[in-house]
């Protein structure tokens, strides 16, 4: 009987131990998501501070394992709090929070399903949006286009928040980490929020540069060749610390 009772205690102990491990794991996941949410909010606020969006336009997301944290729809970024954490799974089902996710969720999920992205930034940056109305591809005005994989394409216009727009965006993103959205804005992705944001800022800067250079009467900007962009892209892969 003593051996039988001891066996029962061992079974209970095993179950309790497994439960503690699971609780610890879930606590770790929640901590990771909370830190990611704080970084997401900081990035979203940065897009406003740097003039890349106005009001509640644009959106930001970050992937934590198989969960996508995303800015909610129509909420000013300076009002986002820890309690506002909003997240969906890769199928778009809401798994955290009560606020409605951004209307551009189809674009964000399309990127995560088809690339190794861990963060996505979408803006309505003025110069980039202006360029999207003028050309089908940003002219190769600067070697930083190499950091995005090559010449930056413009995705054909489609109504915001639709699967059609997400599909157009994916075609423009082929072998690229950023694109322009016609009459709409920009979308970039990266391995981190900082990288995704920096790519957005560089894209807006290149668009501003091209608009400035091409507006000089009687002169045409010198453009880089595909080979020059490829060479720059290879060097940029090893750039930084």
Task: Map the helices and strands.
Blueprint: H1 2-49, E1 59-64, E2 67-70, E3 87-89, E4 94-96, H2 105-114, E5 119-123, H3 126-132, E6 154-155, H4 163-173, E7 178-181, E8 185-190, H5 193-214, H6 226-236
Parallel strand pairs: 6-7
Antiparallel strand pairs: 1-2, 1-5, 2-3, 3-4, 5-8, 7-8
Helix and strand composition category = alpha+beta
How many DSSP E strands?
Answer: 8
Task: Give the neighbour order of strands across the main sheet.
Answer: 4-3-2-1-5-8-7-6
Average predicted local confidence, pLDDT = 90
Radius of gyration: 22 Å
Largest sheet: 8 strands, mixed
Q: What shape does the CA trace take?
A: elongated
H/E element string? HEEEEHEHEHEEHH
Portion in strands: 5-15%
Separation of termini? 65 Å
**Tally of alpha and pi helices:** 6
Give the % helix: 40-55%
Quaternary organization: single chain
Are there runs of 5+ residues with pLDDT below 50, and where?
21-25
